[in-house]
Amino acid sequence: MARAAAKSHVLTDSSDRAANLRVAAVFAEIADLLEVEGENPFRIRAYRNAAHELGALGRDLAAMLAAGDDLTELPGVGDDLAGKIGEIVDTGSCAMLDDLHRVWPATIHDVMGVPGVGPKRARTLFEQLGVRTLAGLQAAAQQQKIRELTGFGATSERNILDALAGLLGTGRRLPLAEARVHGERLLTRLRAAPGVIEAVIAGSYRRALATVGDLDFLVTARSHNGAIAALVGAPDVAHVLAEGPTRATVVLRSGLQVDLRVVGRDSFGAALHYFTGSKAHNIAVRRLGVARGLKINEYGVFRDERRVAGRTEASVFAAVGLQFIPPELRENRGEIAAAAAGELPQPIEARQLRGDLVLVAAGDEPGAVVAAAAAAARARGLEYLLIVHAVPGRSRAAIDWDARTRAAADACAEHELAPLQGLELDIAQKTCPEVHVDFVAARLSHAPRAASHPALLRIVAGAREADAARDPTPLVQAAVGGALAVIGDPAHLPELEPQLRAARVAGVPVVLGSGGEPGGGQASRLDLAVSQARRAWLEAEAVLNSRPLAEVREHLAPRRQARRRS
DNA sequence: GCCGTTTTCGGCCCGACTGTTTTCAGTCG
Predict the structure, then answer these.
(1) Is-contact A288 A320, C-beta < 8 A?
(2) Which residue's C-alpha is at the least distance from the C1' of B5?
(3) Predicted pLDDT of residue A546
(4) Rg of chain A taking only CA atoms, in angstroms
(5) Phi then psi for A20, rounded to 5 degrees?
(6) Is the confidence at residue A53, as pLDDT, over 60?
(7) Residue A132 has pLDDT above 90, yes or no
(8) Is 70 exceeded by the pLDDT of residue A502?
(9) Do strands A247-252 and A237-243 pair parallel, antiparallel, or not at all (unpaired)?
(10) Reduced DSSP (H G I as helix, E B as strand, rest coil) percent helix, strand, coil of chain A, to 5
């Protein structure tokens, strides 16, 4: 079929992990359809686990197969799934999925995705009303056919219509910086609610994932009702999806879903751990608990009926023999083994930074840009600024670089900050203006061919699409001997973590910077950069601007010094 | 369908809330 042809085309691209993603997609769809069939839940989970593991796998399945590797070594993959992986990589599909498609339409997945409609109801809708698509679902609801079905009613029907109209959780993921605005506002409201002792945001927000799907609030309180009422009654709540004595779920007008859980003080640590996730991390920790005869849930750690830990997160980790794991590391990507061995990294903290990095575009007035950035830097106790002057690609007008660097230096001095100044060229540019600067930087918008390394390298937006969609390693390699500059730009946050991870693996130091956005926001941009560095397991030692100015100056100094460290 | 410091069989996380029920199934996180 046409479908198969399209798939094989995808798989001929062996330079990336297309095969992994294809296999993960097939397994995920099989899991969905088995769920509709009402299969054994553990069998379904096996497919779902495998889909999750393979989607995040660092190695190329097609290459592993070609090399004759044993796929059952992979987590969640046994003899059966190993065989199916081979089948999918070879043919693009899998007989089992084809069989399922003879019974269930592929689009039933969309119906299942409607909030309030799961696999069982999707099956009922399909079998009783012939609903195969979202359009069909909407038509059935509008004709009031759904309320006639057993297990449904007028309320369910209305909820389905609301969901289809996009009124209920949109599923859109919000950039971290944007979620922070909503989060902080609600946090203030919850903390002021009667009876509330403590309120925090857990979930992927706390793990500093670049985008978050919802906000998870956790509250300890003397009385439950205060916090629940405060959330449900918040001014920008569009819909209340659930409201009980210990939890509530609402959708804000922005489409952001917000969950609130209220727990007792003795359960706070266990609940915080539980609701911070990630899911994969939690399952792995619980598995450790089971091996020690412990049951771990959001209320605590229990041996038989007796609570043995749970007041703090640290007590939960300690109960299963782990060091405290910072939230940004909780992705089940090796942090549990590291914590068990006492070998966790100590991720960089914002307070360890001594300097910020400011970008001055060719059209900017350097004095004004640097003055704004310097004031913000001074306010957070920084000591110096790395000032990067962009050199335009081709410009006929002579630019007075001495005047520009002098203006920047003066602006720094006014705020009692030390400046370190450099020129930034596109990596393809051959000539550099004749002016004394402390370092030379390169902006990299495509894979580098140039042999001469700049001291500081910055991957600009767009490079990711062009050359590093899946692996920024080749870009980062260009910074060996120098450093990689990473700006906490909210719009490009998802690109940062892979870049930072690649830098760590390559042993390339990084500079974390705000970029110096005029009009404020430096502080949060710097914090965003730090949060992604933490997710990438970077320690202070790997962050150049956590070191004293003299060391940064020496590290970035052009040519000779840079070459000394091979 | 996977997995094993107790296991090659018998486990696999589980509690809260809703809507439809008359004791609970389905969904969600």
Answers:
(1) yes
(2) A291
(3) 98
(4) 27
(5) -60, -45
(6) yes
(7) yes
(8) yes
(9) antiparallel
(10) 50, 15, 35
| Nucleotide minimizing C1' to CA distance for residue A249 | B17
Given a contact cutoff of 8 angstroms between Cβ atoms, the answer to whether A530 and A350 are in contact is: yes
Distance CA A560, CA A467 (A): 30
Spell A84-93 as b/e; 16+ CB within 10 A means b.
bbebbbeebb
Q: What local confidence, expressed as pLDDT, does residue A537 receive?
A: 94
Span A352-368, pLDDT tens digits = 999 999 999 888 899 99
Instruction: Provide the CA A106 to C1' B1 distance, Å, integer.
Output: 22
Measured from the Cβ of residue A130, the count of other Cβ atoms closer than 10 Å reads 9
Tokens, residue A362: 């060719």
Residue A315, pLDDT > 70, answer yes
Tell me the C-alpha distance between A555 and A441, whole Å.
13
Quickly list H helices, A38-94.
41-55, 61-66, 79-91
Distance A42 CA to B11 C1' (A): 10
At residue A417, what are phi and psi to the nearest 5 degrees?
-115, 150
- Taking the C-alpha atoms of residue A42 and residue A416, their distance in angstroms, rounded to an integer, is 63
Kindly report the bases of strand B lying within 7 A of a protein C-beta atom.
Answer: 1-3, 5-6, 11-21, 25-29
Q: In the complex, which nucleotide's C1' lies nearest to the CA atom of residue A124? A: B26
Q: How far apart are CA A179 and CA A231, in angstroms?
A: 16
Instruction: Give the separation between CA A274 and CA A28, rounded to whole angstroms.
Output: 24
Quick one: A491 exposed, middle or buried, by C-beta within 10 A (0-12, 13-18, 19+)? exposed
- Residue type for position A136: G
Does pTM top 0.90 for this prediction?
no
CA angle A309, A313, A315 (to 5 degrees): 35
Burial class (CB in 10 A: 0-12, 13-18, 19+), A395: exposed
Whether A389 shows a pLDDT value over 70: the answer reads yes
The CA distance from A317 to A336, in Å, is 10
- Can you give the length of chain A in residues? 566
Torsion over CA: A553, A555, A556, A561 (sign): positive
Backbone angles phi, psi at A533, to 5 degrees: -65, -40
Looking at residues A187-201, what average pLDDT do you find?
Answer: 93
Q: What is the mean pLDDT of chain A?
A: 84
User: What angle do the packed helices A79-91 and A18-37 form, to 10 degrees?
Assistant: 120
Q: Among the ranges A165-179, A331-345, A434-448, which has the highest mean pLDDT value?
A: A331-345
Give the distance, in angstroms, between residue A267 CA and nucleotide B8 C1'.
Answer: 38
